[in-house]
Specification:
Helix content: 25-40%
Structural class: alpha/beta
Radius of gyration: 20 Å
Strand content: 5-15%
Distance between the termini: 18 Å
Number of helices: 16
Shape: globular
Order of helices and strands: EHEHEHHEEEHHEHHHHEHEEEHHEHEHH
Number of strands: 13
Largest sheet: 7 strands, mixed
């Protein structure tokens, strides 16, 4: 999750991912070893959605085979730089927007690892908010196909059994957590064993507590006029820990990974999960009969003041030394076509990055779409940071806080030091 400036994100946004932002994963091979220009290699974090896109691409290009792997964000980010520097990276790879993690656009484009995609037909059509995080020094390197939001994703069947409804204020949120715990079904699954997951609840709270009263906060940070430690980031972190102490999460979040947290929410062992919209497709895989809806996570007692983190999701970049460059360009063009884009965002429960794709917003994302249209969103926080180290410090520091090895004050001071060093 990452950039420079993000105005309103058009009704069009993650992929957490992601934050994210961010996807869980396994390995797969679409079949055939192929050779020369008939085989494309691909590394993706879009587990649960890239599979259908690959099939459609192969169908549109008879004789072409895509050899691909999917993996979680942590594993992927650790591997991709090594592969690129050693010449073993695939032709096409997941790339995050902006500058916030080791797999982000700026981080990979600066050393020349990514091919310039500015000459592709879709590059000039990206909205400014998306384009700004797909570019490095004015050139486009990232085929960003979707926009993502972070919020509370509720299992509607589990909510009905518990007789509860989504809270829209902070006071109601804590009461909701207590009521859920009393019924033996914790409110939210939290998979903090995977360190990238640790940021999502915090980002959902920061959106309102920090940016609700100061939309210029990131500009002030960049100008040296604000810090993490002396800002409402302290309030957001306190609320995160208050949620944990109130019983909003299942026992032992540090012993629960992303995959296990999905299983808890999908099966109704928790009432939901705080995640990006990309998790909806994975929950539906685990529970095809389930209905899942993303709502804003409240951080104050004024529902009208609530904001949602929403930003460009991860896209795809082309290896500057791709062995099958022509196929690689064909693939990213397919990803950015109405067919490819709509396939991706339908499977992920997202919103397309380009207008006029004919996409019908899934009911599960109605609130996210409304917030985007009403300019009630802020970028994923790390997209506006000057280097990837700030986020990595935050992720490891949050795990240390949950294990009792650090404190909020220490974490925010460390983030400030890394921010200043990288500015």
């Amino acid at each position: 999750m990452k950039t420079r400036t993000l105005p309103v994100l058009v009704a069009a946004v993650t992929s957490v991912a992601v934050l994210a932002a961010c996807s869980g994963g396994t390995k797969a091979d679409s079949g055939g070893s192929g050779g020369g220009s008939t085989t494309l290699t691909l590394a993706s974090v879009d587990q649960g959605s890239v599979e259908d896109v690959v099939k459609a691409f192969e169908k549109a290009n008879p004789g072409v085979k895509v050899r691909y792997t999917t993996s979680g964000a942590d594993q992927y980010q650790q591997q991709i730089r090594t592969q690129l520097s050693s010449g073993t990276a695939p032709d096409v790879m997941s790339v995050w927007p902006g500058n916030g993690n080791p797999g982000a656009t700026h981080v990979l484009a600066e050393p020349g690892y990514l091919r310039d995609l500015s000459d592709q037909p879709w590059a000039g059509r990206m909205p400014d908010a998306i384009k700004s995080v797909a570019q490095y020094e004015g050139r486009t390197y990232n085929a960003i196909f979707g926009q993502n939001g972070i919020g509370a994703v509720y299992n509607q069947q589990a909510m009905a059994r518990a007789g509860l409804t989504p809270p829209d204020t902070w006071t109601k949120l804590l009461a909701f957590c207590r009521a859920a715990e009393a019924k033996g079904t914790p409110a939210f699954a939290l998979g903090n064993q995977d360190n990238w997951v640790t940021q999502l609840v915090l980002y959902a709270l920061v959106a309102t507590t920090v940016h609700g009263d100061d939309r210029d906060f990131d500009r002030k940070m960049q100008a040296g006029q604000a810090t993490f430690a002396e800002s409402p980031w302290t309030d957001a972190l306190d609320k995160y820990l208050t949620m944990e102490k109130t019983g909003c999460f299942q026992k032992n979040p540090l012993g629960t990974n992303y995959e296990a947290s999905q299983a808890l929410a999908a099966s109704g062992k928790t009432l939901g999960i705080v995640q990006g919209n990309w998790v909806i497709a994975l929950l539906k895989q685990k529970n095809p009969k389930g209905t899942f809806t993303l709502k804003a996570l409240p951080a104050t007692d004024d529902p009208a003041a609530t904001l949602i983190p929403a930003a460009a999701g991860a896209g795809y970049g082309v290896n500057a030394k791709a062995k099958s460059e022509e196929l690689a360009l064909k693939f990213v063009d397919f990803v950015m076509s109405p067919e490819g884009m709509n396939l991706f965002v339908t499977k992920q429960g997202g919103l397309p990055s380009l207008p006029d794709t004919g996409y019908a917003v899934d009911p599960s994302l109605a609130e996210l779409s409304t917030f985007i249209g009403a300019d009630r969103t802020v970028p994923f926080m790390d997209q506006l940071w000057p280097n990837a180290k700030v986020q990595q410090t935050m992720l490891s520091g949050l795990q240390e806080i949950f294990s009792g090895q650090s404190t909020p004050g220490e974490l925010l001071a460390d983030m400030d030091a890394d921010y200043k060093a990288g500015s």
